[in-house]
Design brief:
The longest helix is centred in the middle third of the chain and has 7 residues. This protein has about 120 residues and is mostly beta strands. It is globular, with a radius of gyration of 16 Å. The mean pLDDT is about 85.
Protein backbone atom coordinates (compact mmCIF):
# COMPACT_ATOMS: atom_id res chain seq x y z
CA UNK A 1 0.00 0.00 0.00
CA UNK A 2 0.96 3.59 -0.62
CA UNK A 3 -0.13 6.08 2.05
CA UNK A 4 0.26 9.75 1.04
CA UNK A 5 -0.86 12.47 3.48
CA UNK A 6 -1.53 16.00 2.21
CA UNK A 7 -2.52 19.29 3.75
CA UNK A 8 -4.86 21.29 1.53
CA UNK A 9 -4.44 25.06 1.81
CA UNK A 10 -7.05 27.82 1.65
CA UNK A 11 -6.60 31.10 -0.26
CA UNK A 12 -4.57 32.52 2.66
CA UNK A 13 -2.18 29.54 2.43
CA UNK A 14 -3.43 28.17 5.77
CA UNK A 15 -4.19 24.45 6.06
CA UNK A 16 -7.91 23.88 5.49
CA UNK A 17 -7.86 20.10 5.68
CA UNK A 18 -5.69 17.05 6.19
CA UNK A 19 -6.19 14.34 3.59
CA UNK A 20 -4.99 10.77 4.12
CA UNK A 21 -4.99 8.24 1.29
CA UNK A 22 -4.39 4.51 1.43
CA UNK A 23 -3.95 3.16 -2.10
CA UNK A 24 -3.59 -0.50 -3.04
CA UNK A 25 -0.11 -0.84 -4.54
CA UNK A 26 -1.32 -3.27 -7.25
CA UNK A 27 -3.60 -0.52 -8.62
CA UNK A 28 -0.93 2.20 -8.37
CA UNK A 29 2.58 0.71 -8.65
CA UNK A 30 4.11 3.98 -9.96
CA UNK A 31 2.09 6.37 -7.76
CA UNK A 32 5.17 7.76 -6.00
CA UNK A 33 6.64 8.88 -9.34
CA UNK A 34 3.60 11.15 -9.87
CA UNK A 35 3.41 14.79 -8.70
CA UNK A 36 1.63 14.14 -5.39
CA UNK A 37 0.91 17.85 -4.83
CA UNK A 38 -1.56 17.93 -7.72
CA UNK A 39 -2.48 14.27 -8.17
CA UNK A 40 -6.18 13.36 -8.20
CA UNK A 41 -6.34 9.62 -7.65
CA UNK A 42 -9.60 8.76 -9.45
CA UNK A 43 -8.38 9.96 -12.90
CA UNK A 44 -4.96 8.40 -12.19
CA UNK A 45 -6.49 4.99 -11.40
CA UNK A 46 -8.75 5.22 -14.46
CA UNK A 47 -5.73 6.04 -16.69
CA UNK A 48 -4.20 2.80 -15.42
CA UNK A 49 -7.27 0.96 -16.72
CA UNK A 50 -8.74 0.04 -13.33
CA UNK A 51 -12.57 -0.14 -13.55
CA UNK A 52 -14.18 1.73 -10.65
CA UNK A 53 -17.51 0.92 -8.99
CA UNK A 54 -19.81 3.82 -7.99
CA UNK A 55 -18.10 6.05 -5.40
CA UNK A 56 -19.84 6.50 -2.03
CA UNK A 57 -18.70 9.46 0.04
CA UNK A 58 -19.60 9.57 3.72
CA UNK A 59 -19.61 12.53 6.13
CA UNK A 60 -18.89 11.97 9.83
CA UNK A 61 -18.96 14.49 12.68
CA UNK A 62 -15.75 14.05 14.70
CA UNK A 63 -13.66 15.80 17.32
CA UNK A 64 -10.07 16.71 16.48
CA UNK A 65 -7.30 14.54 17.92
CA UNK A 66 -3.73 15.66 18.64
CA UNK A 67 -2.64 15.23 15.00
CA UNK A 68 -5.48 17.13 13.35
CA UNK A 69 -5.70 19.79 16.07
CA UNK A 70 -2.57 21.27 14.47
CA UNK A 71 -4.88 22.87 11.90
CA UNK A 72 -4.97 26.64 12.52
CA UNK A 73 -7.69 27.95 14.82
CA UNK A 74 -8.37 24.42 16.09
CA UNK A 75 -7.64 22.48 19.25
CA UNK A 76 -7.92 18.98 20.61
CA UNK A 77 -11.60 18.15 21.04
CA UNK A 78 -12.85 20.81 18.58
CA UNK A 79 -15.78 19.61 16.44
CA UNK A 80 -14.93 18.97 12.79
CA UNK A 81 -16.17 17.12 9.75
CA UNK A 82 -14.50 14.06 8.29
CA UNK A 83 -15.16 12.99 4.70
CA UNK A 84 -14.56 9.35 3.87
CA UNK A 85 -14.48 7.89 0.41
CA UNK A 86 -13.64 4.49 -1.00
CA UNK A 87 -12.77 3.65 -4.58
CA UNK A 88 -13.78 0.07 -5.22
CA UNK A 89 -13.45 -2.31 -8.13
CA UNK A 90 -15.36 -5.59 -8.24
CA UNK A 91 -16.12 -5.21 -4.52
CA UNK A 92 -12.45 -4.77 -3.47
CA UNK A 93 -11.15 -1.48 -2.13
CA UNK A 94 -8.52 0.20 -4.33
CA UNK A 95 -8.24 3.42 -2.32
CA UNK A 96 -9.55 4.74 0.97
CA UNK A 97 -9.45 8.48 1.69
CA UNK A 98 -10.24 10.36 4.86
CA UNK A 99 -10.21 14.16 4.94
CA UNK A 100 -10.59 16.12 8.16
CA UNK A 101 -11.87 19.61 7.38
CA UNK A 102 -10.93 22.53 9.63
CA UNK A 103 -14.02 23.82 11.45
CA UNK A 104 -15.78 26.72 9.74
CA UNK A 105 -13.92 26.51 6.42
CA UNK A 106 -16.26 24.59 4.13
CA UNK A 107 -19.90 23.95 3.40
CA UNK A 108 -21.29 20.68 2.14
CA UNK A 109 -24.55 20.30 0.24
CA UNK A 110 -26.55 17.23 -0.63
CA UNK A 111 -28.64 17.39 -3.76
CA UNK A 112 -30.93 14.37 -3.92
CA UNK A 113 -32.74 13.88 -7.22
CA UNK A 114 -36.20 15.44 -7.48
CA UNK A 115 -38.90 12.75 -7.84
CA UNK A 116 -40.39 12.74 -11.34
CA UNK A 117 -43.85 11.54 -10.30
Amino acid sequence: MVEPVRRKLDVREEPQSVERHVVLFAAAPDLLSENLETLVTLPYVRRRGVPIDPVRPCLDPVVLDEHDAALPHSGIGAPALRRRRELRTDGSTVEGVTTVVRPGTAEFFLEPPVPTA
